[in-house]
Structure formats: C-alpha cells, structure tokens
Recover the amino acids of this structure.
C-alpha cells in the first residue's frame, strides 16, 4: 500500500499479484501436490497404484485429478504404454525437478516445527483457547 492512497490498486499493483510467490504457492502447495511431487522425485517413475500406495490416504479420484493438473502445469509427465493390459507411468518432469532446492530448503526448515508447536501452545495458553 502507499502511504498517500492506502490502496494497492491505485499504485498499479493488483492485490492478487502483490505477493510474487503467491502463484507459485497456489501451484506447488495445493493439497496433495507436494506429496505427489515428493514421491515422484524420491522414487522415480511410478505407476498409479504405486503412487497411490506411497501417499496412503489419497483417494483414487483425487490422485487422478491432481496428476492431471500436474501434467497440465508441466510438472509431471504421463507415459501411456499401448500394451495388454495398458500401462501408464508418471514421472516428475525437468520443470518439476527444478523445485528440488525449494523442497530441500523446506525440509531443512522442518527442524523448526518444534518451535512452532511451542509457540502455538504458548499462544493458546495466553488466549484461553480462543486462538484457534
């Protein structure tokens, strides 16, 4: 915001674009996207059932939807093998692999999760449980 106008739009910045990482967060950190990309990065090319087992709690319908979106976004490559029975495999694309440093940094930051939990407990104790 500007001091004189108090408005992003008057400064020429659309509120949705005020944070340059927001579109990245929308793509990469939507529900189930991160576990799918992580599994494909860590374990390589996988069939649908293998991926479903690795993730565990995802439904087949949701996994299908997420994989289609990731393929559309260029983060996952789907390979159809015309054989009997047909075989489909998924793998992370080069674009998807470019997220590795981001995932590594987040993995390193996870050492702070204990601090986050302590802060939550302290906050909830101060607020009498109203902090949620």
């Amino acid at each position: 915001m500007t001091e004189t106008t108090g408005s992003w739009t008057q400064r020429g910045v659309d509120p949705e674009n005020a944070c340059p990482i927001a579109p990245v967060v929308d793509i990469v950190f939507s529900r189930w996207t991160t576990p799918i990309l992580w599994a494909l990065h860590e374990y390589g090319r996988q069939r649908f059932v293998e991926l479903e087992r690795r993730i565990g709690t995802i439904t087949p319908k949701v996994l299908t939807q997420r994989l289609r979106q990731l393929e559309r976004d260029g983060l996952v490559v789907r390979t159809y093998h015309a054989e009997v029975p047909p075989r489909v495999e998924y793998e992370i694309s080069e674009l998807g692999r470019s997220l590795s440093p981001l995932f590594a940094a987040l993995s390193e930051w996870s050492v702070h999760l204990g601090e986050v939990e302590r802060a939550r407990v302290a906050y909830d104790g101060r607020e009498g449980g109203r902090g949620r």
Q: What stands out?
A: DSSP finds seven helices and three strands in the chain. Confidence is low (pLDDT under 50) at residues 1-9. The CA atoms of residues 81 and 87 lie 5 Å apart.
